[in-house]
Amino acid sequence: GLLAKSQAVTNPQSTLYGIKRLIGHNFSDEGVQRDVKTSPFEIAAGDQGGVKVKMGDRFYRPEEISAMVLQKLKADAEAKLGEKITDAVITVPAYFNDSQRKATKDAGEIAGLNVKRIINEPTAAALAYGFNKKKDEKIVVYDFGGGTFDVSVLEVSDVDGEQSIEVRSTDGDVHMGGEDIDQKIIRWIADEFKKESGIDVTKDMLALQRLKGAAEKAKHELSTTMEAEINIPFITSDASGPRHLALKLTRAALEQLSSEYIAKSIEITKRALAASPFKIADINEVILVGGQTRMPAIVNAVRDLFGKEPNRTINPDEVVAAGAAIQAGILQGDVKDVLLLDVIPLSLGIETMGSVATKLIEKNTTIPASRSQTFSTAADNQTSVEIHIVQGERPMASHNKSLGRFILDGIPPAPRGMPQVEVTFDIDANGILSVKAKEKASGKEQSIRIEASSGLSKEDIEKMKHEAEANAAEDEKKRVLIEAKNMAEQLAYTAEKALRDAGDKVPATVRADVEAKVVELKKAKEGADIDALKKASEELSLAMQKIGESMAQSAPAGDAAPGAEAEPKKEDNIRDADFKEGEEGK
């Protein structure tokens, strides 16, 4: 709090802030690497590729720091209420991924709290705003905080006396917030001082911390004034003696420094609207959340987009906590007749044959949710499969975020395509994922609860969204080609099996023709010409019909043609999965 802030100037290396930007992240994430360059405290690589920060003479995980904050809040609340607190509802940015949500829940548990629910910040804000209102409304919550940005589109309605608050879409950036604007101001102050004095104060950690305090103060002042004075006496010294910093920052200059972040927030808002069933004209209210929304340029940008005045009647710093309190009341049973329906921000699925990402739960699906799909093996006598879980919107698994892998073994040996492996995704009301795989014949089962220390960086999320849009046509072309190759491989396998099963009952000319067509198809499969692949597949299919005709002519009356059994029957919902063999299958 303020005590920590006031001593930051003399103790910058051991004063921590913005920990929410690091929790659940991987140290190698580009957003984290940017913070490493600008942070006065040390950010280093932790266990399993995660992040740790240095305070005093030891390192801490972000979860531990968050737990310290929660412990202080818990103690303050207990002092106020006069009783012990054991349970909590904790809010997170809507765009927090599975790892970040799990890390936040861990922080609560470290603080000695039973975390009853993880709730999205924009959803909590809408809950606080819409609570006890009887009219139906479409609401946009624009949440520009210190370290993250989120926007959610919600629908508040009254259904048979029960108030329903349903999230229809959400979008955001977990590495964009007021701290990024602060860094822009710090850079501007340092550059201006360097022009004037020739001294680069960014090399001095103590001076840099003083710049940070001055930048925040100027930004806050410019929400109500047109010009702010920045005075830092004895900022540094040179051969001529002490040097003082005295500058003026105008609101117009601040708006120019902030323009890229404001423009980006508006683009994200437009994406969220496009993903919802509503148009701009349908929106009844726009609620501003987060301290950064006090900035006039942000208010103006939101007003220009929606053509109406944003709702600023609720304290932007308190509205989220108020919504969390209402959610706690719902869970306790003290608040009745309120139904809250939240969503997941990114699609969840597994890697299947050809490195395709097969989605099981689509983005903006209401949670809690459960989806199952049956897959099969990609090789004969495969006794083990690897389940690779991914998160994102791209058609190819490698372009999405890898959440984890696990092995299901003990599958009875059988021809490819015959075993049935049911994969089930369960996502709870906190947005935390569990995955289960079960082989139906043997009953063998394996499961995983995603607990990776790394999270989605800003770059991961931006690439998932923007590349999905920019490369949509190329992605679709690649997906169609891979599906055609998968079908071609299955067709060639079926043709070869039919020839083996039929033996010498197939005339030599027919056998030679089918074998030649199989060779042609395999050759076409190695290329990238979709038309040539389709043509070769069609020609092989026609040639295979002759096997059936030959068998029918030579078979005694009443006998079934072996060729008719050449292709194993599959259930409609079974997909070939590119599962890798484990030790048992090798």
TrEMBL record:
**Coiled-coil regions listed:** 456-490
Which Pfam family, any one, appears in the UniProt record? HSP70
Q: Which UniProt keywords apply?
A: ATP-binding, Chaperone, Coiled coil, Nucleotide-binding, Phosphoprotein, Stress response
Q: Which GO terms describe its molecular function?
A: ATP binding; ATP-dependent protein folding chaperone
Query: Could you tell me the superkingdom of the organism this chain comes from?
Result: Bacteria
Give yes or no: UniProt keyword GTP-binding.
no
State the residue spans of region: Disordered.
Answer: 547-586
Indicate, by first and last residue, each region the UniProt record lists as having compositional bias (Low complexity): 555-565
Q: Please verify whether the record's keywords include Nucleotide-binding.
A: yes
The record's section on CDD domains has: ASKHA_NBD_HSP70_DnaK-like (cd10234)
Compositional bias ranges of the Basic and acidic residues kind: 566-586
Which InterPro entries does the protein's record reference? ATPase_NBD, Heat_shock_70_CS, HSP70_C_sf, HSP70_peptide-bd_sf, Hsp_70_fam
Q: Identify the NCBIfam families for this entry.
A: PRK00290.1
- Family membership, please give it: Belongs to the heat shock protein 70 family.
Its protein name is Molecular chaperone DnaK
